[in-house]
């Protein structure tokens, strides 16, 4: 797909971290970008900075997501690129020892269900609404391409750590959705891929740095090469290339400095 000012994009979670870097990279390429985020003040300021449109969207709410798509389409026309970075997730070991009660406890099913909703179901929600709009649009190139959907998965989907049953399981479900969705949409010329980032310097990791510099440095040293956390701009670069390269379809692509984390 040719990336220029004739193309509209939507980036969820676009006010911070990986989403923010991706929205900026697309805008720098001339793309008209709608920033979906629940943080209104930060989202409004950033959207204005990149010449885009801000949509206050809660990915857990169907009506909120649909309203965001409607607002974005009214401002920029039918989106051809969707990069889904927003997530709602929790953690907790399957069974752990509670020092307060002196007994074992399990992570409540409801907590796992909320993560499943915030990771897998929300990903489907965003992608399916986007695909329905793309399906009714004219192709953008001679291949018959109508759009590109990119999920943000995680390296934890393949080698999750202790306490990541909900997160790793949810992201693994996203990976498993990529190929069948790409096949569902192949006759419509809509591509589906996922990016699996390793440990990146996003707001959660930067909070770790504020609390414990040594732990933060250790996370970077655990990466084979380069021995540092990933930069959000590196994720964004890959998202732009996937959008641009029509032959990338049905793929789950790791970007992690070759890290493979043993359980700890």
Automatic annotation (TrEMBL):
PROSITE patterns: ADH_SHORT (PS00061). Keywords: Oxidoreductase. The keyword Oxidoreductase applies. InterPro entries: NAD(P)-bd_dom_sf, Sc_DH/Rdtase_CS, SDR_fam. Coiled coil: none annotated. Signal peptide: none annotated. This is SDR family oxidoreductase.
């Amino acid at each position: 797909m040719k990336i220029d000012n004739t193309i509209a994009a939507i980036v969820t979670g676009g006010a911070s971290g990986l989403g923010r870097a991706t929205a900026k990279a697309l805008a720098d390429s001339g793309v008209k970008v709608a920033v979906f985020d629940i943080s209104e003040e930060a989202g409004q300021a950033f959207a204005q900075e990149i010449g885009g449109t801000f949509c206050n969207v809660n990915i857990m709410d169907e009506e909120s997501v649909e309203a965001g798509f409607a607002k974005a389409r009214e401002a920029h026309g039918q989106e051809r690129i969707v990069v889904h970075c927003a997530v709602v997730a929790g953690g907790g070991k399957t069974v752990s020892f509670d020092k307060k009660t002196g007994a074992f406890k399990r992570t409540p099913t409801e907590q796992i269900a909320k993560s499943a909703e915030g990771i897998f179901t929300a990903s489907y929600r965003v992608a399916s609404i986007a695909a329905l709009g793309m399906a009714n649009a004219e192709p953008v190139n001679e291949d018959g391409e109508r759009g590109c959907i990119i999920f943000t998965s995680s390296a934890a989907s393949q080698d999750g750590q202790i306490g990541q049953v909900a997160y790793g399981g949810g992201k693994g479900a996203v990976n498993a959705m990529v190929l069948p969705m790409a096949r569902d949409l192949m006759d419509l010329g809509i591509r589906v891929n996922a990016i699996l980032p390793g440990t990146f310097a996003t707001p959660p990791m930067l909070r770790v740095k504020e609390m414990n510099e040594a732990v933060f440095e250790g996370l970077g040293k655990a990466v084979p090469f380069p021995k540092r956390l990933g930069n959000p701009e590196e994720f964004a670069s890959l998202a732009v290339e996937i959008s641009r390269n029509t032959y990338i379809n049905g793929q789950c692509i790791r970007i992690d400095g070759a890290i493979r984390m043993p359980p700890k």
